[in-house]
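User: Here's a chain of 149 residues. Predict its fold as tokens.
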Amino acid sequence: LQPQQASLPPSLIMSWQTYIDDHLMVDLTNGGKMSGACIVGLDESKNVQVYAQSPGFPAVTKAQVESFLGNMDNPNVFGATGITIGDKKFVAVGPNPGIALRGKKGQGGCCVAKTANALVIGIYEEGVQPGDTNNVVENMADYLKGVGV
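Assistant: Prediction complete.
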């Protein structure tokens, strides 16, 4: 899916890319940065749109986004299949049902947090604390919920 500008009023959002660059791909509390971040949204027709992403972020498929949204309240589904973001597969660990999915792959991992109409996704590699990524991704999702996204 290719990045597209969201169709929300400018008064509700700044540039989607600003959320990635200035709020997700930042220095984390315990050192390091996420290796990638993406905001994927659903428009009023429930079509999937990648609103913004960091360079090199795996290409997220519509089926993956639909699976995240459809199973966020029942994250045990990912216990058998894992969490796949683009071509990267993670073992599902420590979900926060209805709020976030979390995964591990070696020393790295991911966090996928849900808003009303979007997903905020972060991927990290070795040297980054999982909790730092979870906090940044989930806090961004909470902020977006607060502004109606």
